[in-house]
Design brief:
Elements (H helix, E strand, L loop, with lengths): L4 E2 L2 E2 L8 H18 L3 E6 L2 H12 L7 E4 L8 E3 L12 E7 L6 H8 L2 E11 L29 H11 L4 E5 L26 H15 L6 E5 L5 H15 L3 E5 L7 H10 L4 E2 L3 E4 L2 E5 L2 H6 L6 E4 L7 H10 L3 E6 L1 E2 L2 E2 H15 L4 E5 L10 H10 L8 H4 L8 E4 L3 H5 L1 H14 L5 H9 L3 E8 L2 E12 L3 H8 L9 H9 L4 H4 L1 E10 L8 H15 L4 E7 L2 H9 L3 E5 L11 E7 L2 H21 L9 H8 L13 H11 L9 H12 L8 H12 L4 H8 L4 H26 L1
Parallel strand pairs: 3-7, 3-8, 4-5, 4-6, 6-7, 9-15, 9-18, 10-13, 10-14, 14-15, 22-23
Antiparallel strand pairs: 1-2, 11-12, 12-13, 16-17, 19-20, 20-21, 21-22, 23-25, 24-25
Length: 741
């Protein structure tokens, strides 16, 4: 069976697509993949029963060895991963991955599973007829369709684009039921599997290992940063370095990543090089030396020490948390994926490079470019990149660097047009990826298909310079709102109204309509020019015109982000008490009322937040960063807080401020004065004075903890800083009283 190609696409023969012929085609395709150590994709397009029966005939062929299904209806006796669980495949390698789209095309699962096919292997996609796939009742759409929508309301834009990519991609063969078989393209020049030596698979990998070893052997504060696409041996390089260091007697190596599964290749490499070592699920011990996994938030909140910290998939960890790790550990190496399912090194580079330059100017970057899981120029890598926009790039810095606010137009996009404007879609998604560490392939489908989502962009000269994803929430009837408030129902989506009803006790909030900004991003080269504020104002005005009651956002709290929302007059009404395990951040919810009904909900929620915050800081938020606590205290208008102290209270505060009384004798008065004055942001306080005021007076930490948290030598310095802060508070209070009088 020969075949031809026309204009880069596969054309059909006249032979009927019989099962035996399809098995032969798959065998030939696999042989072609093995000959060049690349991968190939086979798409079986038809009804579910035919696809599953046909692929079983293919996998029964003895020449196709290690196979795994990603499906909810795989046959008995096969390795299988259920939908939305493909994370467990990370770090593994397979000869054949069968992805059953009849069970639902979960985009993240597809991204994870496709990268586990090794060179010489096949990615087999079971799909409905391509012509009708966009209209298919996809089970994966349930996660996209927030109430009151159902999967029937989810558009097929993502699948229409995916079909177009499938039909135009080299190395992807489509077999349709009851249609002639395609022919295979002539084989390109074969390339051998990459082999370097018994330990290293490429020169890049050797250089990466040497860089990590130098972190331990060289000067302190000289981090290494390994950057690569998937399949380049980045995690394995960390494992090789860890194994060598254990053998040299380095006693304690800590590994961290957003998820334990992400470091499976690292631990597998250590185990392969040190078969004599003891191994448990999260650690490997060689004599007195150990390498162990710890979550990133635990490292930031505890006093765990390490001779070396290895941070894998750093792009999937927020820069603020990476910053804390960088400050805490003197010997540290980061590794991240540039274009990949786990996160994006592009955003990592933009957000974190400045911190590295400032804090550790001797840091070293190593790029691993040679693939080792498959040969170079792999067509399936290119196909997956295109299909999931893993290589989407925002506009270049040079094209937007000189743009001003008045050069830009702000529009709400018609999402169907994004399918015809691939460049705009790529810039839009690339911008979202670079701005947010949690942007994943599934967000592309949500962007294109989510029935409740609107897409706003600011653009100039064809370049996307800012973007926001917005969703509509709330509007429930009285019975549903009451059920939400009492915890009996949790309709999918509707984060802000449900949170206000269930956690703040404002049942009415679930009945009102809310516009929530899910994501907002401004191009790094165009920031601090008012673009973000202008975008928020446009979204706010559109919501007001539609009769929406309030607008809101929820995000992982940082001082910079809260300051941005304060600047556009959106203020915190809720904070999560627990930290996110991946980000190490507390979530904060901000609101902006738009109607009288919205104002009532906002006022009640805001009053509760302002009143409770001082008390939360001494209990559930006792470990909140002091700079973050201080910015949360700020009010909409200056001098909003009142001070009610007696004459003896003022005398005690003055004597403490000038060293004539102990802290315990005036702590209650200092607490009240601190709460009131922090509302005005107190520009006269130094950062150290502010932090001591928060950690001791409001969070009521021990003097030892206060000194450790603020970088002071001990109790004496901490007390001196607090006395200095008290003098600033007294002076400010006195001048404010004079102004108000």
């Amino acid at each position: 069976m020969g075949y031809t190609r026309s204009r880069g696409r596969y054309v059909m023969t006249e032979n009927p697509a019989q099962e035996t012929d399809i098995v032969g085609l798959a065998r030939e395709l696999a042989a072609q993949a093995r000959a060049c150590f690349q991968r190939r994709a086979l798409v079986l397009s038809g009804d579910a029963a035919w696809c599953r029966k046909t692929v079983q005939g293919i996998t029964d062929d003895a020449r196709l060895a290690k196979t795994v299904w990603v499906s909810s209806q795989a046959p008995a006796g096969v390795a299988v991963v259920k939908g939305r669980q493909a994370d467990v495949l990370l770090g593994q390698e397979w000869d054949v991955v069968i992805f059953d789209a009849h069970s639902g095309f979960d985009v993240d699962d597809f991204g994870a599973a496709s990268g586990t096919v090794r060179g010489g292997g096949l990615l087999i996609l079971l799909a409905p007829l391509l012509e009708t796939w966009p209209q298919f009742a996809d089970p994966a759409c349930e996660s996209i369709a927030v109430a009151p929508y159902s999967y029937a309301d989810v558009s097929g834009r993502f699948l229409r684009r995916l079909v177009r990519v499938i039909e135009s991609s080299e190395g992807v063969i489509v077999v349709r039921r009851d249609a002639p078989l395609p022919q295979l393209a002539s084989q390109k020049k074969a390339s051998a599997a990459p082999v370097f030596d018994e330990v290293y698979r490429s020169a890049d990998q050797r250089r990466a290992v040497e860089a990590v070893l130098h972190v331990v052997r060289g000067h302190r504060r000289r981090p290494a940063v390994l950057i690569s696409d998937r399949g380049r041996g980045k995690s394995a390089a960390l494992g090789i370095a860890a194994a060598q260091l254990l053998q040299e007697g380095v006693r304690h190596i800590v590994v961290t990543a957003p998820r334990p599964e992400a470091v499976a290749p690292l631990f597998a490499q250590v185990q392969a090089l040190l078969p004599q070592a003891q191994m448990k699920q999260s650690w490997i011990r060689l004599g007195e030396c150990v390498v162990e996994f710890r979550p990133p938030d635990e490292l930031c909140l505890s006093q765990i020490t390490a001779d070396l910290l290895l941070v894998d998939e750093a792009a999937a960890i927020p820069a603020s948390l990476l910053h804390r790790l960088l400050e805490r550990y003197a010997r540290i190496a980061f590794a991240t994926t540039v274009h990949g399912y786990e996160g994006t090194g592009r955003g990592f580079a933009v957000r974190f490079r400045r911190i590295l330059d400032e804090r550790t100017p001797g840091w070293r970057e190593v790029k691993l470019q040679t693939p080792i899981r498959w040969a170079a120029d792999d067509p399936i890598e290119r196909f997956v990149f295109r299909a999931l926009l893993l290589d989407a790039e925002s506009a270049s810095d040079s094209t937007v660097a000189q743009l001003r606010l008045e050069d830009c137009e702000c529009v709400c996009l018609e999402r169907g047009a994004l399918l015809e404007g691939e460049a705009t879609l790529a810039q839009l998604f690339g911008l979202l990826v670079s701005a947010h560490y949690r942007t994943r392939p599934a967000d592309l489908r949500n962007l294109l298909d989510g029935p409740s989502i609107s897409v706003y962009v600011m653009r100039a000269e064809g370049q996307v310079v800012a973007a926001a994803l917005v969703t509509m929430e709330g509007g429930f009837d009285a019975e549903t709102a009451q059920d939400i408030a009492e915890g009996r129902r949790r309709p999918r989506g509707h984060l802000i109204p449900q949170s206000l009803a269930a956690h703040v006790g404002l049942t009415q909030a679930a009945r009102l309509r809310c516009t929530r900004i899910m994501r907002i991003a401004v191009h790094p080269a165009a920031q601090r020019r008012g673009l973000g504020a202008h975008l928020v104002a446009r979204i706010q005005n559109d919501a007001l015109a539609q009769g929406v009651d309030f607008a809101g956002a929820s995000f992982g709290a940082t001082e910079e982000l809260i300051a941005f929302w304060h600047n556009v007059n959106w203020w915190p009404v809720r904070i999560g008490f627990g930290r996110d395990h991946a980000s190490g951040s507390h979530s904060v919810m901000v609101l902006r009322p738009l109607t009288l009904a919205g104002e009532a909900v906002y006022a009640a929620a805001r009053a509760r937040f302002v009143g409770y915050l001082p008390h939360w800081l001494s209990d559930p938020l006792r470990c909140l960063e002091p700079e973050l606590a201080a910015v949360l205290f700020q009010r909409e208008t200056a001098s909003a807080a009142q001070v009610r102290l007696t004459g003896p209270d003022w005398d005690a505060l003055s004597q403490f401020a000038h060293g004539r009384r102990d802290y315990a004798e005036c702590m209650a008065a200092l607490w009240q004065l601190g709460v009131a004055m922090l509302a005005d942001a107190l520009p006269g306080l130094t950062a150290t004075e502010r932090d001591v005021l928060v950690t001791k007076v409001l969070q009521k930490r021990s003097w030892a903890d206060v000194a450790a948290a603020t970088g002071l030598a001990g109790r004496a310095e901490a007390v001196a800083a607090l006395r200095s802060a008290a003098r600033v508070l007294l002076d400010y209070s006195s001048s404010r009283s004079s102004r108000e009088g």
